[in-house]
Design goal:
The protein is mainly β. The protein is built from one helix and ten strands. The longest helix has 21 residues.
Length: about 160
């Protein structure tokens, strides 16, 4: 009798497991395709911000010391922006034809051409800034670019 109960329990467990695995995926996010990006330069795998330019149908992925640019419709790599040390945020401004990448280890923002994906200029920033965003200006047709300062720990003053 013990053997029969053990067998019955295992059969029920296997049957319920099979039913759970055979269910179709529910609504929401699901994997469509894997896009190989290759190893990051320097051997250290590191991903940070992902930026989507829906109008241009491009996805910008911070990948170690480079930014991979993907075609959002074909799921393929269309370019790589190199020459960085450790990139973080990517901001695209189509009205200027330029993009901006924060390079945390270099302490600067790299400016790149949206068509050629080549870096055209660099600007030094405090090391605490790693994220970019735009601020709409009501009096102008083009937005103002801004950086976000990472929070700093407060240190009590020794003077009292």
């Amino acid at each position: 009798m013990k053997k029969f109960m053990l067998f019955l329990s295992l059969a029920c467990f296997a049957l319920l497991g099979g039913i759970a695995l055979a269910r179709p995926a529910g609504p929401g996010y699901h994997l469509i395709k894997k896009v190989p990006l290759g190893a990051a330069p320097g051997g250290g795998e590191y991903f940070d911000y992902v930026t989507v330019d829906s109008a241009a149908r491009r996805v910008y992925i911070s990948h170690g010391a480079e930014v991979k640019v993907l075609d959002a419709d074909k799921f393929s790599v269309v370019g790589t922006i190199t020459g960085l040390k450790r990139c973080h945020g990517v901001l695209v401004m189509p009205e200027l034809g330029k993009g901006f990448i924060t390079d945390g280890d270099a302490g600067n923002v790299a400016v790149f051409n949206l068509k050629t994906l080549k870096i055209t200029a660099e600007s030094k920033l405090p090391r605490t800034r790693t994220r970019l965003s735009t601020i709409p200006r009501p009096s102008s047709s083009s937005p103002l670019m801004a950086t976000a300062k990472m929070p700093q720990p407060s240190i009590p003053s020794s003077k009292q």
